[in-house]
Amino acid sequence: MSDCLYCQHIQKKTNMLFENEHVFAMLSPQPAIPGHVLVLPKAHAPILEVVPDFVVGDLFKVANKISMALFEAFGAQGTNMLVQSGPVAGQKQNHAMLHIIPRAEGDGVDLSWTPKQASEEELTKSEGTINDATKNVGSFEREKPKPKEVEAPKEVQKEDPRVKFLRRIP
Ligand SMILES: [Zn+2]
To answer: Could you tell me the sign of the dihedral formed by the alpha carbons of 122, 125, 129, 132, in that order?
Structure first.
């Protein structure tokens, strides 16, 4: 069995809410607040950035449905969807995941920061640095088509008329 705790959860279907071919959703065993849901790629990946594009798309689709369910069934007043890539971003497990946290007025969950005013110079500098690296945004990796299983034509076993004839011979 895998060393990764979350691969084990996926295998054992721990706290499972939903699964499809690529995605597994479960209640967090260490929630920020009750109803905290984790949406994970089934194939192990240490951070979201190395998850194939078509799985990333699936992760967000599932996350959005679960978020809706938290509003409707769980009575959430709001939700946060959060990805933590890297320990400095708060990532604690070595398996990529998307957190969906139901929110309520005064729930004490703190994900806030104080917005600062950016200078023109700073924006221009950041834009220049990031721009080159974003040239491939828009070219997305697609899932390779699975080989179609072609059913082998069943050989029709016709009885050889000669055999039929032979059977009559005592
Ligand atoms: Zn894993």
So the answer is: positive
Alpha helices by DSSP H, 13-103? 53-72
Q: How far apart are CA 48 and CA 56, in angstroms?
A: 8
Cα(39) to centroid(ligand 1), Å: 12
Vertex 104, ends 99 and 107: CA angle to 5°?
85
Tell me the CA–centroid distance for residue 159 and ligand 1, in Å. 57
The domain limits of the chain are 5-103
Compute, in angstroms, the gap from residue 138 CA to the centroid of ligand 1: 28
Give the model confidence (pLDDT) of 87-135 as tens digits. 999 999 999 999 999 999 999 999 999 999 999 999 999 998 898 888 8
Helix, strand or coil, per DSSP, at residue 87: helix
Pick from 73, 54, 58, 47: which is nearest to 24 by CA? 58
Distance from residue 37's CA to the centre of ligand 1 (Å): 17
63 neighbors 86 (Cβ within 8 angstroms): no
CATH architecture of the region 5-103 = 2-Layer Sandwich (3.30)
Provide the whole-model pTM: 0.82
Tokens of 80: 């946060």
Tens-digit pLDDT profile for residues 114-127: 999 999 999 999 99
Q: Determine the distance separating the centroid of ligand 1 and the alpha carbon of 59, expressed in angstroms.
A: 15
